[in-house]
């Protein structure tokens, strides 16, 4: 199992992937108050969404082989 995290300018998405199939996803759109401390918002939101996905599928964290993170390029 793998976890994919998509960090966007206005959202964060997390997906649970098995082989080449997306099993389930979560997404949160950021509001202005989330951007006040965006670093902590990203960390807390990512951790909470991953835990929610794992709990909903009864999967233990030891079953996760890899976590990949994609983010926009900043100039």
What layout of secondary structure does this protein have?
Elements: E1 2-7, E2 11-18, E3 21-29, H1 38-56, E4 66-70
How would you sum up this structure in a few lines?
The protein is α+β, with helices and mostly antiparallel strands. 25% of the residues lie in helices and 37% in strands.
| Tally of structural domains | 1
Largest sheet: 4 strands, mixed
Strand content: 35-45%
Number of strands: 4
Order of helices and strands: EEEHE
Question: What quaternary form is this?
Answer: single chain
Structural class: alpha+beta
**Order of strands in the sheet with most strands:** 3-2-1-4
Question: Your description of this structure?
Answer:
With 75 residues, this protein is an alpha+beta fold. The protein has one domain (2-70): Nucleotidyltransferase, domain 5. The chain is 25% helix and 37% strand. The protein contains one helix and four strands. The protein has one helix at residues 38-56, and strands at 2-7, 11-18, 21-29, 66-70. The protein has a four-stranded mixed sheet with strand order 3-2-1-4, covered by helices on one side. The longest helix has 19 residues, at 38-56. The protein is globular.
Primary descriptors:
1 helix; 75 residues; Nucleotidyltransferase, domain 5; four-stranded mixed sheet; alpha+beta; globular
């Amino acid at each position: 199992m793998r976890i994919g995290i998509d960090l966007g300018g206005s959202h964060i998405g997390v997906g649970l992937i098995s082989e080449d199939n997306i099993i389930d996803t979560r997404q949160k759109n950021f509001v202005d108050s989330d951007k006040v401390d965006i670093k902590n918002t990203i960390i807390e939101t990512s951790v909470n969404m991953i835990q929610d996905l794992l709990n909903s599928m009864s999967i233990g964290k030891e079953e996760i082989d890899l976590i990949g993170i994609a983010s926009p390029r900043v100039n």
